[in-house]
């Protein structure tokens, strides 16, 4: 193996290591961003439902079925496009991680 080939293999190894570190860092950031989120599935959609309606549906569900007041939320919304035959999941982002 020549000096040039050895140098190229070393450079390739460094690049692969850097890519792996970047991917790990990205995954870690994404996980930290999502840790305040929960997804609720199967909750029916009301006709002409607004974001505030979605939040109230979720609050009613958690209070009635889980006996839990969900407290302060940053955002509540449904995922995906509207489909008449499918109840889109609801994502809730809480203000507090605790």
Question: If you had to describe this structure to a student in words, what would you say it looks like?
Answer:
- The protein is an alpha+beta fold.
- Helix content is about 50%, strand content about 15%.
- The protein is built from two helices and three strands, in the order αβαββ.
- It folds into two domains: about 1-35; about 35-95, Alpha-Beta Plaits (2-Layer Sandwich), CATH 3.30.70.
- The protein starts with a helix and ends with a strand.
- A three-stranded antiparallel beta sheet has the order 1-3-2, with helices on one face.
Give a summary of the structure in a few sentences.
The protein is α+β, with helices and mostly antiparallel strands. The radius of gyration is 23 Å and the shape is elongated.
